[in-house]
Fold 3-oxoacyl-[acyl-carrier protein] reductase.
Amino acid sequence: MPRLIVVTGASAGIGKASAKRFAENTDKVLLIARGRDRLTRAAEEIASSVPGADLEPLALDMSDAESAQTLQNHIRSIGLPVNSVVCCAGSVPRSEDEAEGKDVRTVLTEWQEAYEANVLTSVIAVEGLLPHMADGGSIVLYSSIAAYRGSRGTGGYGAAKAALHSYVHSLATRLGPRGISANVIAPGYIAGTDLFGDGLSAARETMLVRQTALRRAGDPAEVAELGFYLCSPAGGYVTSQILQINGGSYHGV
Ligand SMILES: NC(=O)c1ccc[n+]([C@@H]2O[C@H](COP(=O)([O-])OP(=O)(O)OC[C@H]3O[C@@H](n4cnc5c(N)ncnc54)[C@H](OP(=O)(O)O)[C@@H]3O)[C@@H](O)[C@H]2O)c1
């Protein structure tokens, strides 16, 4: 029986690389993101480079609680237990650059958006899928180096990511008796993703690279490989951990 892997945020960046890595392992992969066209293109791109890939794109907004029900119905229609849930869906608030001069309501809206996009997307996916998960399965959530060193603007993005660190410990304790592992991956700067919209300024990119010990940005495939390991039998004894993958970036802005 093939493994069924659910990857949220699978239309771009790390999520797309993760979906490809599981497909290469002949797993059945359910790819989720909001934008249908980009998601379909991602699935086609993976299928073209992984012959025989078993991929199912499903357009859903994972910050909407209703999506849990849709997802459950879809899993029932597939008729397989879920082996792994990899929650890559997340985003940086577009207005994060400015910190000062905003009124409290604006700041509150940004923090709520950051929380919905980076925490609730994971909570809705995980809690919605738990009744359908196979014992011995695995959960991977995506945090960021920002959880350790703060983020730009008023800091809502980094704070939201840090909330996942606490959630994963609760998950690991709850699900340990079922043999389900739960871990967080906290990447540093990974190039070739859509996370930064139109891209980082050259100056900021240079600074981020200079902060690494390896003097280079990470690649989505390198991060996906770590997630793949955590969802493999070889990674089965790793649980309740926050794994940083950042080329040796030091903390502190
Ligand atoms: N790239 C980095 O340097 C970096 C560093 C640290 C942490 N991370 C974290 O790693 C994860 C993956 O980042 P990435 O760089 O691969 O980002 P990305 O290239 O921007 O991809 C984000 C994916 O999430 C989807 N998404 C966003 N909101 C969603 C929602 N509400 N429901 C469903 N899908 C949603 C996007 O598609 P739609 O917009 O169509 O929904 C897209 O497929 C994120 O959690 C990010 O915060 C990334």
In short: Residues 4-243 form a domain with the Rossmann fold fold (CATH 3.40.50.720). The pocket of NAP is lined by residues 8-15, 32-35, 38, 61-63, 88-91, 117, 121, 142, 144, 187, 189-190, 193-195 (CB under 6 Å).
